[in-house]
Structures are given as C-alpha cells and as structure tokens.
Amino acid sequence: MMFRTDLAVECRELAGKSLPAGVSYHEEIREDIKTISMHIQDDQGSHALGKPKGHYITVETPPFSEAGEDIDARLTAVSQALSSLLPKNGCILVVGLGNSAITPDALGPRTASRILATRHLKGEFVRAAGLDGLRSVAVLSPGVLGQTGMETGELLAGIVQHIHPSAVIAVDALASRSLDRLGCTVQLSDTGITPGAGVGNRRALINQESLGVPVIAMGVPTVVDALTLAADLTHPMPDDEPTIRKKIEPQGRGMVVTPKEIDLLIDRAAFLLSLSINAALQPTLSPQDLLSLVS
C-alpha cells in the first residue's frame, strides 16, 4: 500500500522474484541502454501487477541531467519502441498532458511544442518542397482542468471524433517509487493513461475504450511520492507502515519530491521524447532534418 508508482517495471519488482503468471518479460542491453519489454497477457497478470493488460516498454538510460542533448542510442531505442506500438498508417494525434506552469508537470507541453505538425500541409506547396511523403500529424497541449474547466478526456474525445486519427500519443510526467529512476527512464505502453495519477490527482482515464482509437502513453518519472520515498529508503516491515504514515501525515500528505535539477531534466527529457516521436512518425527524415524543421 505504501508504494505508489506509474512504472510497470517497478510493479514487476514489487510482485516478487518469480514472474507472475500471465506476464512475459524480456530484457535487451545495447551500449548503456537497457530496454525492457513486458506484456501483461490476461486478467491474472493484470491483477498480480495492478496494471491494465497490454504491452509496456521501458527504456533505461544514463541520467538526462548528466548527458547532453546528443543524438545517440537513446533516440534509437525510444523511437524504435514507439514505432513497435504505433499503427503503420493514418494520422497521429500527439497530446502533451500536464501543466506548463509547474516544472515537474511540464514534460507533456514542452514535448508537444517540438513535435512536427503536418496535418495542415497539403497541395502543390508540399509536393514542391519535397514533403509529400510526411505522415499526417496533429499536436495538442490541452492544459489541465483548473485552467480550462474541462476534463482532458472530454477535449480529446471531441477532437478525435472530428479529425479521426488512427492513434493518439499521450505524453505525461510520471511518478516513480525510487529516486534511482527519476530522469533516466522512459516508459511506453499501449494501455492509455490517467492524467494526474502520479501526484494522486487522478482524472478520467484516456484509453482506447474512452476515445475509440489506440492510445500510446509515453512518460518520464519526474517525482516520487513522499510516503513512497520514505518506505523505499527505510525498507519497512508491513507493521511499520502506520508509524511512517504518522510521521509524514498530515502535513506531508500529498507531498511529492523532485530533483533540484528538475529544469534541466525536463528540458532534456522533452528534447529526447519529441525527437523520438518525430523520428518514429517521419522515418524518411534524418534527426538533423527534424531538428531543423522544429527549431
């Protein structure tokens, strides 16, 4: 009960050493990048891990705050993971979830700001510019309920009904149970997303059932819940939970912890995610071409 996390790999770790029934798991390491593919196949596996059925891909990288904005193996790993989850054809709607005014929650909007939008590019101009091979992409940063008075799911449902994308890519900041995974982990899944879940402010679920099209979720953990962090650092026994809760609550209820270099972390994570999304959606363009088009 004390551990709160958005990461499927951490739910797998909390489930014990043996792999739960109904779950497949595979690791691949290239250079200093580890890619973990996990498939929750049935209700038994979903119950064991507390996650919806579907595919989860986790890319573990060197910390973003310690590495520059180089185009390297991280881009290849994340873009290939995303490509494996996307439909091959049709328009894609990229949605940057979160609040741009709060740095740990700004990953989605900052990622969306660097996505190459192409749905409006049509006609002779596109052919003359040699861009007629681009995939149709629309981009949206819907803000949060407190800014718009509307649930994000409500906004997306209306837009999806109008533009009919073949899939939605939803980018959001995540919560981890461990400090070790902040700013060095990218999770992708085809199970949708619950905005605000990482900070205990769960909103309406955004998934294929609610929108009618596949929803690919992408995110980077930027915060750790205070109670979860205390448990992770102290390794308490089950009987210790009331004592830890008493020390943290009520003042610490709902408190989250984020790294002091969060500005740098968000900038570099958004750079990686946006470039990876652009590369997956526009494979005919080089990373250098993509950078020149969105800069």
Task: Summarize the helices and strands and which ones pair or pack.
Blueprint: H1 8-14, E1 23-30, E2 33-40, H2 43-49, E3 54-60, H3 73-85, E4 92-96, H4 107-112, H5 124-128, E5 137-140, H6 145-148, H7 152-163, E6 167-176, E7 185-189, H8 208-211, E8 215-225, H9 226-234, H10 241-248, E9 256-257, H11 262-281, H12 287-294
Helix pairs in contact: 3-11, 9-10
Give a verbal description of the structure.
With 295 residues, this protein is of the alpha/beta class. It has helices at 8-14, 43-49, 73-85, 107-112, 124-128, 145-148, 152-163, 208-211, 226-234, 241-248, 262-281, 287-294, and strands at 23-30, 33-40, 54-60, 92-96, 137-140, 167-176, 185-189, 215-225, 256-257. Strands 1, 2, 3, 4, 5, 6, 7, 8 and 9 form a nine-stranded mixed sheet that branches. A hairpin with a 2-residue loop joins strand 1 and strand 2. Helix 3 (73-85) crosses helix 11 and helix 9 (226-234) crosses helix 10 (241-248). The chain is globular.
Question: What profile does the largest beta sheet have?
Answer: 9 strands, mixed
How far apart, in Å, are the first and last alpha carbons?
44 Å
Provide the residue-averaged pLDDT: 86
Total of DSSP H or I helical runs spanning 4+ residues? 12
The SS-based structural class is alpha/beta
Question: What would you say about this model in short?
Answer:
By secondary structure, the chain is α/β, with parallel strands linked by helices.
